């Protein structure tokens, strides 16, 4: 065998993955962008027609409403998760090495369990005949069951649970790596608990927190099974609507336009928050 | 203050585990619905699984799919990660970002693209295209784990082997691979879990012929809820827990916590 040396080796080694991804990832994505500008026919995609109709249709209030709901639910989930995860991250970071590992494992594990299974678990808790309603009724606190799923509450609970570790882990890493002497110094110089938190701890872990929040947000925007099973057709989000349009209505050009919109909105919001983060960091650091 | 933090942490821990515990509980009761108190034990729903051959077939399909796609992804990722870690070449950073990009694209968007692409190519509903798509979805996880492991292998050992006359390929096969085996195994297990659990992309590209287990569960839940699915889910939770423990043992979870 001819000796593989020098500059051809990286090319040869990365080629299988690059070729596969070009054929089965980049190409299909580009094709769906093209499809979004074609017309719809009963046979599928009418490639003889070029049109913007799919995009103008997306601007109808019905679809914009669903887009807005998706953004709203995703953002609420992210903010709620950040608020819930912060004390936990702090608590874990203060523990001894071994205990830290166990606690982190506890938060990573639910993520590695199937989404449909998790949604089913939440159904057992939230449904009209679920744990919460059965218990509350048994205690005589309520007469009719509370509506905890098939609405935005259900989606919110499922998403906070499912994507918790994406904020917790970076936050924990930042807090665990924090130089404790800075906190002592601040306290020594007369800072109270609150100002130590807002002026020392928070600015230093902010990049990690925001990075986690951005990942969390994109995961929420793209989530499919959780909102489909806990929200259902009464509170559709973008991914669920995209599923219906592509696999029930079979309107692929419109479905493709929806994919493009989802991609552009998600990426756009991520870019925007990264810019805000960057300028915010500068402000915090140089104030 | 300390006590408050601890109580809060326990409360959130309950929130994280509640749905999983409830599923296991439910799977052992004879009733259709949740009832208190829990005093009867039954394996009824586990027996029911075998009345639904759909679940059993779907399980084996999922295993075949996950094993094949994560084997391919691990092999490809090892070669790619080796290049990224060991060589400096133009476009290295771009390539790195490219391999991670499937994490960035929302799964729904990729799913829609695959649905339309595979249909046009006449490859819809084929097992092969399912495997190749899963390779792409799980590759970022495999690369990350393997990349981390390769960084820990001192390159001096490869140089020593090559000095003693081994070709680079031989040094890689006999020195680098064995020394990074834990990371490679972690990459494989990660890839396996990700493929086995994949719902969003898969649901767009599976007709009735290739319903994986998560898709089967999803479809089942969409029109009915009975504890048969609790029994199936409980078994899946058990499998995930086992894999997580293995990952933890071989240090694979550090990919997240580093």
Automatic annotation (TrEMBL), chain A:
Keywords: Cell membrane, Membrane, Transmembrane, Transmembrane helix, Transport
Naturally occurring in which organism (per UniProt): Oceanibacterium hippocampi
Transmembrane segments: 7-27, 73-93, 99-117, 154-179, 200-230, 250-272
Gene Ontology CC: one annotated term: plasma membrane
Family under the similarity heading: Belongs to the binding-protein-dependent transport system permease family. CysTW subfamily.
Subcellular location(s) of the protein: Cell membrane
Secreted recorded as keyword: no
Location of the ABC transmembrane type-1 domain: 67-273
Taxonomy, superkingdom: Bacteria
UniProt topology in membrane: Multi-pass membrane protein
Name of the protein in its database record: Spermidine/putrescine transport system permease protein PotB
Biological process, per Gene Ontology: transmembrane transport
Encoding gene (name): potB_5
From TrEMBL, chain B:
Keyword check for Cell inner membrane: yes
PROSITE patterns in alphabetical order: ABC_TM1
Record bears the keyword Phosphoprotein: no
GO BP of this protein: transmembrane transport
Main location group: membrane
Residue intervals passing through the bilayer: 7-28, 65-85, 97-118, 130-150, 171-196, 228-247
UniProt entry keywords in alphabetical sequence: Cell inner membrane, Cell membrane, Membrane, Transmembrane, Transmembrane helix, Transport
Entry membrane topology: Multi-pass membrane protein
Intracellular or extracellular location(s): Cell inner membrane; Cell membrane
InterPro entries the UniProt entry points to: MetI-like (IPR000515), MetI-like_sf (IPR035906)
Start and end residues of each ABC transmembrane type-1 domain: 59-247
Gene3D superfamilies listed in its UniProt record: MetI-like (1.10.3720.10)
Domain of life, per lineage: Bacteria
Pfam families reported in the protein's UniProt record: BPD_transp_1 (PF00528)
Any single Gene Ontology cellular-component annotation: plasma membrane
Stated family: Belongs to the binding-protein-dependent transport system permease family.
Name of the protein this chain belongs to: Inner membrane ABC transporter permease protein YdcV
Organism in which the protein naturally occurs: Oceanibacterium hippocampi
């Amino acid at each position: 065998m001819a000796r593989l040396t020098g500059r051809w080796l990286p090319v040869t080694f990365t080629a299988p993955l690059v070729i596969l991804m070009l054929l089965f990832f980049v190409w299909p994505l580009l094709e769906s962008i093209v499809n979004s500008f074609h017309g719809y026919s009963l046979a599928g995609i009418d490639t003889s027609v070029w049109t913007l109709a799919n995009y103008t249709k997306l601007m109808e209030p019905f679809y914009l409403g669903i887009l807005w709901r998706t953004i709203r639910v995703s953002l609420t989930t992210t903010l709620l998760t950040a608020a819930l995860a912060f004390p936990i991250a702090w608590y874990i970071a203060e523990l001894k090495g071994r205990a830290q590992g166990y606690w982190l494992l506890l938060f990573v594990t639910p993520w590695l369990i199937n989404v449909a299974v998790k949604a089913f678990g939440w159904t057992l808790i939230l449904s009209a005949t679920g744990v919460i309603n059965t218990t509350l009724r048994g205690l005589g606190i309520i007469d009719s069951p509370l509506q905890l799923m098939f609405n935005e509450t259900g989606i919110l609970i499922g998403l906070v649970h499912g994507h918790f570790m994406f904020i917790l882990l970076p936050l924990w890493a930042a807090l665990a790596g924090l130089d404790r002497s800075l906190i002592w110094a601040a306290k020594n110089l007369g800072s109270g608990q609150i100002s130590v938190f807002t002026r020392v701890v928070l600015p230093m872990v902010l990049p990690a927190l925001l990075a986690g929040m951005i990942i969390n947000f994109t995961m929420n925007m793209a989530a499919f099974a959780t909102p489909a099973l806990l929200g259902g057709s009464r509170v559709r989000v973008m991914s669920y609507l995209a599923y219906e349009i592509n696999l029930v209505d079979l309107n692929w050009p419109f479905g493709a336009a929806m994919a493009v919109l989802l991609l552009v909105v998600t990426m756009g919001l991520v870019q925007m928050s990264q810019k805000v983060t960057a300028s915010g960091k500068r402000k915090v650091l140089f104030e | 203050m300390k006590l408050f933090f601890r109580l809060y942490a326990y409360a959130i821990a309950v929130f994280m585990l509640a749905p999983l515990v409830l599923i296991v509980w439910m799977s052992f009761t004879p009733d259709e619905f949740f009832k208190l108190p829990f005093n009867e034990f039954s394996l009824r729903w586990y027996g029911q699984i075998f009345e639904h051959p759909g679940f059993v077939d779907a399980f084996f399909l999922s295993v075949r799919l996950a094993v094949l796609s994560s084997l391919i992804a691990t092999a490809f990722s090892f070669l790619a990660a080796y290049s990224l870690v060991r060589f400096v070449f133009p476009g290295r950073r771009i390539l790195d970002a490219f391999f991670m990009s499937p994490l960035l694209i929302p799964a729904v968007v990729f799913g829609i693209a695959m649905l339309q692409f595979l249909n046009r190519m006449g490859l819809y509903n084929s097992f092969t295209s399912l495997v190749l798509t899963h390779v792409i979805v799980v590759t970022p996880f495999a690369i990350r784990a393997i990349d981390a492991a390769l960084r820990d292998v001192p390159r001096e050992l490869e140089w020593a082997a090559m000095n003693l006359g081994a070709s680079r390929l031989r040094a890689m096969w006999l020195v680098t691979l064995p020394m990074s085996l834990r990371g490679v195994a972690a990459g494989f297990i990660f890839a396996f879990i990700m493929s086995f659990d994949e719902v969003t992309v898969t649901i767009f590209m599976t007709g009735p012929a290739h319903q994986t287990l998560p898709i089967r569960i999803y479809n089942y839940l969409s029109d009915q809820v009975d504890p048969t699915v609790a029994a199936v889910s409980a078994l899946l939770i058990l499998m995930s827990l086992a894999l997580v423990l293995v990952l933890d043992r071989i240090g694979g979870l550090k990919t997240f916590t580093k």
